[in-house]
Amino acid sequence: MSRKIRELDKITVEAVVDPLAGFCGGVNRAIDLVEKALENGERLAVKGELIHNRLEMDRLYRLGLVPVDDPSETGGRSVLVRTHGEESDFFKRADELGIRCLDATCPKVMKSQKVICRAHEVGKQIIIVGHINHPEVIALQGHCDSKAIVVDDAGSEEPVDSSLPTLLIAQTTVVPETFLKWQQKLKDVVDDLEIFDSRCSFVTRRQKELREFAVEHPAVIFVGGRHSSNSNLLYNICREVNPNSIFIEDESELDLEWLKKFDRVGVSGSASTPMWLLEKVVEAIRSFR
User: How many angstroms separate the Cα of 266 from the Cα of each of 21, 93, 169?
Assistant: First the structure.
């Protein structure tokens, strides 16, 4: 018997899946739209990533979903509007090309788009708290002629005009403390300030649930897409309450030496991490016994 196999035999860690993990309602709805359309024989494309999880996207591509960069590239397929939403011009262009749209925009994001559109129509200055290159923020900009000022924890490259009536809104998965910081900052300098709380209630609730889950286990394995804002936010919460937390994208990144330190680990993920992937990680850990 090799030394490697003898080492694997020593691993007796118990792996427990977070029962409250899995897709949020918006992602569940989007995945369901894709699967049903493809099952019914519809040819379907999507602009960009439907969700920020590489493995789940690979699964959907294998089912027949085709990624495109522009509606003109769909090749006669219907086009799925991802959960992050799209600019209003995207829908106009698809309509001009006679392309059917399946709109999987998250309802919370859709509400933000409508609020921004109304504010823009009455001439309000719009400030979005979020990541300037995030697809949700890019889509929000597309509902106010790209006139919004995007700010993050570091500040903004564009000046804020304190004399203008202003709407403050956020990317739905933004760090709560960053949104609160901008609320407090603008309240002191802007007389006519409308604050729209666009944060996702699922993400807010998951933060509390994840804190509770993380402290209940000696260690936590957090599974998610590395480019997902929600994944990074929730993983950092795990690390805050339990320093014995690691971030992986799939079971191939499991560290055997790290696992051997614990008799029990919790396995959780973000709103874009499929439950099948969490179960796969648990199965891999159990196979080490």
Answer: 11, 46, 34
Planar angle of CA 63, 65, 70, nearest 5 degrees: 170
- Residues 51-62: tens digit of each pLDDT: 889 999 999 999
Distance CA 166, CA 10 (A): 61
Q: Are 143 and 168 in contact (CB under 8 A)?
A: no
Residue 136 appears among annotated catalytic residues: yes
The DSSP line for 161-185 is -TTS-EEEEE-TTS-HHHHHHHHHH
Domains delineated in the chain: 3-23+201-287 (3.40.1010.20), 25-103 (3.40.50.11270), 115-195 (3.40.1010.20)
The torsion angles phi and psi of 247, rounded to 5 degrees, stand at -110, 125
Evaluate whether 209 touches 253 at the Cβ level (below 8 Å): no
pTM of the model as a whole: 0.84
Report which secondary-structure segment, H or E, holds 16.
Answer: strand 14-17
**Catalytic choice (42, 73, 136, 283):** 136
> Are residues 266 and 214 in contact, defined by beta-carbon separation less than 8 angstroms?
yes
